[in-house]
Amino acid sequence: MSKINARILLEPNEVPKEWINILPYLPLPITPLINPMDGMPAPPELAFAIFPKECVIQEVSQERTIPIPKELRELYAQTYRPTPLHRAYGLEKDLGIEGDDIKIFYKNESVSTTGSHKPNTALAQAFYAKKEGLKQLVTETGAGQWGSALSYGCNLFGLTCIVYMVRASYIQKPGRKILMKAYNGEVHASPSKHTMSGRLFYDKNPEHPGSLGIAISEAVEHSLKRDDARYSLGSVLNFVCLHQTIIGQETKIQLSKVGISEPDIIIGCMGGGSNFSGLALPFMRDKLEGKLPNTQFIGVEPRACPSVTKGEYRWDYGDTAKKAPILKMHTVGHGFIPHPIHAGGLRYHGIAPIISNLVNNKLMTSSMHFQTEVIEAGLQFTRTEGILPAPETCHAIKEAIDQAILAKENNEKKVIVFNFSGHGYFDLLAYKEYMEGNLIDFELPSEEISDALNSSDMPIIDESKF
Amino acid sequence: MSKINARILLEPNEVPKEWINILPYLPLPITPLINPMDGMPAPPELAFAIFPKECVIQEVSQERTIPIPKELRELYAQTYRPTPLHRAYGLEKDLGIEGDDIKIFYKNESVSTTGSHKPNTALAQAFYAKKEGLKQLVTETGAGQWGSALSYGCNLFGLTCIVYMVRASYIQKPGRKILMKAYNGEVHASPSKHTMSGRLFYDKNPEHPGSLGIAISEAVEHSLKRDDARYSLGSVLNFVCLHQTIIGQETKIQLSKVGISEPDIIIGCMGGGSNFSGLALPFMRDKLEGKLPNTQFIGVEPRACPSVTKGEYRWDYGDTAKKAPILKMHTVGHGFIPHPIHAGGLRYHGIAPIISNLVNNKLMTSSMHFQTEVIEAGLQFTRTEGILPAPETCHAIKEAIDQAILAKENNEKKVIVFNFSGHGYFDLLAYKEYMEGNLIDFELPSEEISDALNSSDMPIIDESKF
Which chain A residues touch B178 with a CB distance below 8 Å? Predict the structure, then answer.
């Protein structure tokens, strides 16, 4: 392969025509969303009051594929999809693995309009909300990638967008709120005084750093104020992971163009789990059909919030104030407020039930890294590949580098593919702190996790009643 | 044309194989670079001491095309070229010009590794410097697009990079210096205390906002300290405009894919003139060959620094401290310090001699706009096309919008093409100030220009002696 083929492109008319639904392929059925009021599976009417209707239908669909509406496909094609798949020649050279024994590829979702994979589902959710006649979507955001994407999507469809942004990120990443406002988004630092859920924390400490769990509570509460408003979630749920499968489908076609049908390792960072799912699930579907017996899947977490790596698989609230549905997932406890690491998108106490299902069935593994080592990997990537990654994405890069070095030490041939989920142009403070030697590491102690999980505040769900 | 073809892509192997050299096509010969020491055309030995040798050769070449070295072409292909050409359907709809009578296209250089057209020449200059055995390139930067690109290019080729950044931008755009440092660039606010040229201003006022003219003086002075260092310029000179012609060549192929062979209006913003040249010169070559008789070319300037629109065509120093070569160009005077508008890349007192030559021969025109109206146009673009433009790029957008509205009023059919030279993710303060109603307009009064141009400090060049 000549280096002139380092970027493998697809034409706009090659945007996939359907999403891959992993649910019918799972060895054990996916667990339902539980109504926090009665501990029973949420009936559709309840879910319809929270989320756009079409999304709720997709959440439980058992269809193997779900068609992407033509207008939406055209919008993807008009704006940024398909995205490029890059061979990381520069990084490979720097790692001393030149040659073709170990190949590192990355799917570059940073070229999207708002700089990450998030518009994939933002455009879909705004499209369905508009079609249903809704006027407003309300959401939370960590580092701001999701808030930017939904503000963008809502603006395109003439919907208003309200974003509760975790205060730690609101302060660390001031550019993000300006970008959201440029897209006509309305942004509030969370915890805020605008909701009851927010005031629980805000009144005690107006400078509370916040968490995704609290911001979700605020957004859900806000969305329930208006009949024509709905809550929009940028990760965790099945339909969100579904919308992201467009990533992995394109990647498969792109790899096949350079003669690769069986990648060895698929890597993505995990906060709620959507970007990892997006890349991994189309390959996982093949694995579950017996086609990719040797492919490994690794989701990467921060040591400050290792929901899968150190959490427990059990029922927990999706949010801090217990307003959102209860999910069966790996969790470090909904009451946990993670340290304000720069990878704000990974500060979620739980994970997508699809991921938990896969982990529980030993179909994938997880790993975790410190903040300084991931930013160091991100800087190495910037200097060798030219694109400065988001701190979240740095987790995937760190793991890809580690896996490449391991393969080299073991004299193994490996094709490593990771999801370059977003650029870090709004996260430069993380790099500044690292380069100046001021970046601090955080690790969540096991005792804190067991305290959180043993708290009387955890939900008790009787599955035999379903 | 279906909207699924709103982005017209080319494959990496379609990167042009040669640059278009406009010099042999010009109706009047291009004027030479003048040595500020003796007022005579700079001999090659002198130019070789300042710039990489191959660039000096290209500066005066009369070849109609110049081959792009294979390694460089592969590097473009590996990293970001060809870039997409977009049809601005969203913007067109917002302007009420739906249909195919008036079509707006933009060439999206913001997808480059560092977010603008600047790597096109940065990679070329670093490539030639490396080939010559040099170890360091020194440059100036306004808003930081050029400094980022050269830091990136130097780092790829193992060269050190020193950047003097205009202080107004250094303060307004803190992200840019972090990005340059991430690429191993060494960044100083200009005027600085590191050079004699800088100290002339720094000692009187350590908070002096600076100008491109002063920063060029500092960079040239710094580069002369070491035998293995050279000065690198990101605009103005013929060879820089040459390297950018890759933009227009791709655009021509992309337009032909949608059946357009004769665009009506070609637009680009102008600071030193390189991004405008990059898009325009391949079309201008055709015009000079009689092929595009009706195509108009418009370069767009800020009212705070309208070098072409309100300046005079005459000999002037390229920099404030008179260390760089003297050029025949439109200028508002080398002593002029423009207001600190956000479009830092457009704060240059002069313009590329190629542009001046074209203007003087009535082959193109210029226009100028206020800061608030261009940021307003940029915000309209963000909300309709999704990509937030750099303040420099907003000038081209404002002009494209004005031309589209004019065509609509006159019931004319027009194909308008502009260069989307860079994204504005590091320039968010401009948008914040605009949205909060705090953005201030500046206009350079005609008296100030005539004072500057009548100053005894202007060079007197006797062309009869050449």
Answer: 428-429, 431-432, 435
